[in-house]
Write a structure and sequence with these properties.
Length: 214
């Protein structure tokens, strides 16, 4: 048991250190030697746990993805309505109030860290969206939603949120940003087939926009 514990402790230490460098220097500018010097280990020790810098990056990203999946699973178990569950998840997994996640998302917007952003999106679509799709399926059954493609719809929604976030970083016209936010909310209503007779569209629109600007 001690050997297993030491193995996991060292692996976690490498992931923690790599994450720290990725947040401060960015993925592309971080070297394996940076990680080795910080921890004080030999190159052979690093390669015992990870085959490359890219592999340790995947471990960093998957830790974030696993956290978001856990949040989604917790929200799924609540007694809230389906739309309320989706809104709660989006609020909980946002960077608001989470300094470390905010720093990581900031790095994602740097062009040299495009691979990190791509892997994070891939992980979210593959591991988090299936849980969110269960919320959409529940909504189909209760009449809150009406879509034949729960998984694909939520994947488009999540990918759209990232695209919208990227555009907000580049767009400096407040009016244009607001127009894009409102149009994206309209897209969400249509792709999920949200039943407007069962929800207050104005309040839901305001809630979604608040999520997007956090």
């Amino acid at each position: 048991m001690r050997v297993v514990k030491e193995h996991e402790t060292r692996r976690t230490e490498i992931i923690d250190t790599a994450e720290e460098f990725f947040l401060t220097k960015g993925y592309e500018k971080t070297t394996i030697n940076d990680i080795l010097k910080k921890i004080g280990i030999a190159k052979g020790t690093f390669y015992h746990y990870f085959k490359s810098k890219e592999e340790v990056m995947d471990a960093v990203i998957m830790r974030v993805v696993d956290q978001d999946r856990s949040i989604a699973q917790e929200v799924l178990k609540t007694d809230l309505g389906s739309l309320e569950k989706v809104l709660l998840f989006l609020n909980k997994q946002s960077a608001a109030g989470n300094q470390r996640k905010s720093e990581m998302l900031e790095q994602f917007h740097q062009t040299e860290n495009a691979l990190m952003k791509q892997r994070a999106l891939e992980g979210t679509l593959k591991y988090v969206c299936p849980v969110l799709a269960q919320m959409i399926e529940e909504g189909n059954q209760t009449g809150e939603f009406s879509t034949e493609y729960p998984l694909e719809s939520i994947q488009f929604l999540i990918a759209g949120i990232q695209s919208l976030s990227d555009e907000r970083m580049l767009e400096d016209d407040p009016e244009m940003i607001q127009r894009k936010l409102i149009s994206f909310v309209e897209f969400i209503f249509r792709i999920l087939g949200i039943n407007e007779e069962m929800t207050n569209k104005q309040i839901t629109t305001e809630q979604l926009i608040q999520v997007f600007i956090n």
